[in-house]
Amino acid sequence: MGGRTSSVSRVMSGGTHRSTLVTSWAVRVTGIEFTNDFPIRENGNNHSNKAPDAVSYPKIKENFKGWGLGPYVVGWDWEGSDNLKRAACYHRQKPISMRVRLHSSQPAPSPRTFTLHAEPTVSNGNPAGLSAGSVKVSWPSGSQEQIVEITTGGALPNEVSQYDLHLAWFVKELAISSPEGTPSAGVGGVISRTRHTIYSIWEDPLNPSVSNKAGKKWFADTGLTKQRLDKLIQAIGGDKHRFPTATKADIDRLIWNLHHHVNSSSPPYFNGQRGVTISYGMDGPELDLLDQWVMWAPSRTWKRPPKAQPHWNYGACISYVQLMKTMLAIAGINSQRAWLYPKTTQWPNGEDVDWDDSDLLDLEDRDPDVEKYRIPKTTPQEWPFADPNTKLMSKATVRLIEKPGPHGTPFYEAFEACLYYDGKLVPGAIPPRRYPADVLHDRVGFANAKELLRWWHSVKHGDFKRFMAWVSESPLAFFDKDGTYYSSPYKIPVSKQLPVP
To answer: How many Cβ atoms sit within 10 Å of the Cβ of residue 23?
Structure first.
């Protein structure tokens, strides 16, 4: 990058004004490395020998399209030309720190000092609080290159955002030692202009497996890539690529925006079941939370046929919730997975029962050092029934009866997976446009488990109205609120369906 030279005239010894030799000495920025930032990895490419995924999944034939994890981005982030594919990620309300390589047009004829200034501007809005930084540079005689460290003034805004950062590099207060030892003032000015992609996140990135509120903050592998950060910022900040996080209400809205984006954007389905890992296909390799960004990869037909496996990735509501949790983790926002169980207020013997939120909701409490999910604190509602055909006793559980499958096959749900944050709940896999009007108005999620259960129970699929019934899976049998047996749940009269809390 060019700029005005910093030049000084020097009079040679000899007769008065007999001859004058003018030398020009200019300096420019040739390298910038961002420091004190969170480590970022290259976008993974499982179909390339260049920057491949760090974790190999040889059984997976699909291309992750950059959603995997490549090697860490190291070295100079800027070298002579703008490269917006390289980025740096900082904690909100922190300054930007850099190692800067300076190169002169020729070795310095004599020692000199100057002040290097970096003046920031942001093209996608004003970076409130971020101001110029400076450092004093001492340049020895005969040297043509120096590396200095500089930090901007002020701090990044209280936001989770992406910035198109422009830096103007100035030389000021140039002083050059003359042969007589008297410092001479030189000409300074703009020496370089550079452009960069900068992200700010809320807190230190979390291990996405952390679920307890006092969980372990820092994770050895942050899972940060430019592609993942771009997706996160797009989901919460839209086209502005910026979202304020100054208040608790801001974080509530941030989570709402993210969940709205995930649930409304038709991401691929993975077989998440209840576990932390997801499976590729029905029996493929497992991907842990750090890799579940690959759910954003386009879904393609896998192992054609069978028609029963139309997607190479298949799953349900828990997959959406885990994707949301994983995305929030790189921004340092600690959320929890939760399972809402359908339960009824009447036992088959006619006895009434009341439930509070802790009875309906199983809230994950997981430590990253614990490999498996801890024993649930909340369990489904069960009752022993006798099958009238076999006379065998079996346990039936309250299930939410869904629209029948092909040929009238019963379909039912055991739970609705949700993301939990500070008492609020947002479900997975159902577009928010189907939420109640008051929930859409507040834009923070469902206030409690009972409110969520009532809505979940009321959701229609076309003309079909969901309802609850007792379901025994072995042998398959269905029972109404009084304990009467049915071979199909769809034969249960509306008056005999289970009452909702």
So the answer is: 11
pLDDT tens per residue, the chain (501 residues)? Answer: 333 333 333 323 223 333 333 458 899 999 999 999 999 999 987 776 666 666 666 667 667 888 888 889 999 999 999 999 999 999 999 999 999 999 999 999 899 999 999 999 988 876 667 899 999 999 999 999 999 999 999 999 999 999 999 999 999 988 887 766 656 666 678 999 999 999 999 999 988 877 655 455 556 678 899 999 999 999 999 988 999 999 999 999 999 999 999 998 776 666 666 667 777 766 667 788 888 898 888 765 445 544 554 455 555 788 889 999 999 999 999 898 899 999 999 999 999 999 998 899 988 875 545 545 555 678 899 999 987 877 778 899 999 999 998 888 999 999 999 999 989 999 998 889 999 999 999 999 999 999 999 999 998 888 899 999 999 998 899 999 999 999 999 999 999 999 999
Q: What span, in angstroms and rounded, lies between the C-alpha atoms of 315 and 402?
A: 17
Cα 199 from Cα 83, distance rounded (Å):
15
- C-alpha distances in Å from residue 325, one per residue of 206, 277, 319, 336, 428: 10, 13, 10, 7, 11
Q: Do strands 87-91 and 189-201 pair parallel, antiparallel, or not at all (unpaired)?
A: parallel
Judge whether 307 and 225 are in contact, CB under 8 Å: no
Residue with tokens 């290159």: 145
Q: What's the token pair of residue 339?
A: 């399972």
- The verdict on whether omega for the bond into residue 306 sits within 30 degrees of 0, i.e. cis, is yes
- What pTM value is reported for the model? 0.86
Separation in Å, CA 81 to CA 43, 138, 193, 194: 21, 26, 9, 8
Q: How far is CA 476 from the centre of its chain?
A: 41
**How far apart are the C-alpha atoms of 391 and 374, rounded to whole Å?**
35
Cα–Cα distance for residue pair 140/146, rounded to 1 Å:
9
86, 77 in Cβ contact below 8 A? yes
Contact yes or no for 267/312 (Cβ under 8 A): no
Residue 189 contacts residue 3 (beta carbons within 8 Å): yes
Token reading at 22: 């003018």
Amino acid identity, position 375 = I
Say how far apart CA 70 and CA 56 lie, in whole Å: 10
